[in-house]
## 1
Amino acid sequence: MAAVTVSPLRQRGEILFLAVSTAVILLVAAGMIALKKGKTEGAKHLKGYQISGISDLTGNNQGIFTDLYTAALDIEYYHQTNHPAWPAVTQLMGDKIAPFLKDELWQSRGRLDWREQPTGTDAALVNTKAYVGKSTNSADAGSFLVLFEHYHSSDGTYYLAGGKERSYTIWFKNNTFDLPATITEGTLVQNGWKEVVSYTGKDQRKELNR
């Protein structure tokens, strides 16, 4: 009895369809794994005293944080070019830098009372500075604090503390307002302040991949 092999009419097309289907399945699976991994790592790296500037702050507080994040760059630049001076709050207002500027937006965002706050930790080679915005209406917004800290070597070289990517941290507190006598990251945590972390774009990927 003779054996006869019957080939599919569209064998080539079927193989191509199978290859494409397999590739799509692999890509979808890889994407779901990466998404799950990103969420898990994000939760792991957000410490107990930290909150997300995107998911944990809302409304006016999120807007104030965004403005303050940008203003901190201007403040740091001024200090670097005018060392050891720091810009006064009145100067920031005069330069129309939000959130220090008392305009209509400031009126609707809790009317934060901004002032420079001594940190009590300044030394010859250590530069620290704090700007505090106390909310006058906690229903509209909470209170904010931006803390600068960096170092200068004996020859005047500017550098950051080990492991830090920027010279400042931004802190948030709602309802109550308590400031420690000496302002450091540790004492702020002890007094219930929360460090606001910008988990967006490159910052988020960089934080999650540490």
Note: The first helix runs from residue 11 to 45.
## 2
Amino acid sequence: MAEAAQESDNKLSGVQRAAILMLAIGEKDAADIMKHMGPKEVQELGLAMATLTSVTSDQMEDVMAEFVATLGKQTAIGVDSDDYIRKVLTDALGADKAGGVIDRILLGRNSKGLEQLKWLDARGVAELIRLEHPQIIAIVLSFLDADHAADVLAQFAPQVRADVMMRIATLEGIQPTALQELDEILEAQFSGNANVKSSSLGGVKSAANILNFVDGSIEGDIMEKIGEADADLLQQIQDNMFVFENLIDVDDRGIQTLLREISSEQLLLALRGADEALKEKIFKNMSKRAAEMLRDDLEAAAPARLSDVEAAQKEILAVARRLSDAGEISLGGSGGDEFV
């Protein structure tokens, strides 16, 4: 029984464990904690709390014990608050999700105006920054969540969109002087402290994430203009917009269409670097016999060079992008028309 309970605990995500903690500490304390969270984190945590069912006493005790143990390792004297925030959030949300949240928290504590922007609708944010220099707009959009930033970007003229996206993609952190300039230009709404370290906001990945949420027609126009100005940068953004693991977000019919367009040799090599969830998605959309043969081939295959695996994955992604452009499949992470 204990082993079963432990196995169940291990299946809980970081957000689910945080939700259990919120439910355990009571309404007032939970509310006080959530006041310090951004809108996306509140939404994600609130959804987890609303959908939790059948929480066992063993799970509750395990989560509380882990929290107390983590807290017990910290001291009020000499603790590095930045390191503490990074550790707690990484443990709660996982490294991938925590990265952006950490940057926004550590930067946002000295930029209250930026933090407030996250609660405004896209039109309101656009109106506040419309007349600012494109570099300032790029910094603001880098700070926002990707889907929010995409909605704000759609409010601008086509030429401005491309300019801003190129600036985001080539942004190598935000220096104190840039923050100070931002605070001064936006006056009291952007009160901050210039004595902060550079944040890792911006970059090619940030630009790609925003473009993943942009409407298809707007995305195409932006990409065309970026390509005219800097073909290398365009390629870097495209490479980051939809990676091989994102194929798990493609619906079953789309996967079946893709499989008809690629060779078994390509697929065998590409799947060598895929996680189990994606492999199962592929197997599910093949005939039983074909799936069994592919499983056997994967198990018996000799080691392959990482560069060869990545090349095969890029070839398959190129096919997926072609099919998407032709309207034959929908890439789950990319913006575009909805089907009803």
Note: The first helix runs from residue 2 to 10.
## 3
Amino acid sequence: MRLSIEHTIRQFTEQLAELSESAKLDVELLLAHSLGKDRTFLFTWADQIVTEGQELQFKALFSRRLNGEPIAYILGQQAFWDLELKTAEHTLIPRADTETLIEWVLELADSLPEQTRVIDLGTGTGAIALSLAYEFPRWDVQGVDLIPQAVALAQQNGQLNQLECVRFYQSSWFEEVEGQFDLIVSNPPYIDPEDKHLDQGDVRFEPKSALVADNKGLADLELIAQQGRDFLAEGGWLLMEHGYDQQDAVQQLLCNLGYQNVATRIDLGGNPRITGGQFYKGETS
């Protein structure tokens, strides 16, 4: 007997409940994709019967999720800020916690130049760079990534969201970067290679190169903070995402390197997530 949309959601949510904290949402997204509709359709037409073809497509996608594969990779897209971004297995999945960084920039905006120059290091899908370009169309926004496929994906996302003014190019951190910036932002690798969470949840499917850093996850944060001083305009800001347990280490790092007004912002889960500071050339230590 064919199931209705409502019964399909209920039945498969129960199957997924132990694996995913967002089981119902996951099922709704997969089913809506299989029907070629948006989620609103599911609620409006809850009694509609799912056809055999639609069911086969849905079950194929559902089995991938049941195996732990992230929704963003299965559907090839992820919402971030006010944007819809294409995703791929060679980039991190944009997460809502990273939006904390965008919110901090909004707080700083009035103190920044009208045509702020900003660079996003390790841009991945382009989520941070594109969100800033969306909010501040007059800013000069750049994004770099070591992986050529990530650069191409970020460029595609710029086109998709009509934000082609952002310049994306390949660079290992600052190697190919030129000039001075009023704002440097980054969500670099910051997980300890020995962290047990690497074998759990969605991160099992994400590229380790975008997750893991030496020195207990601090190596790339240290490099960006140290080299960033040479690329910051007078009084420019550096904002970096980090692990929930790295606040003290990153704050101390910035203070030791001469950054001023060092502070941390809390993410949606209540964890310290973004730490930043302001740099003045005369304060180098």
Note: The mean pLDDT is 91.
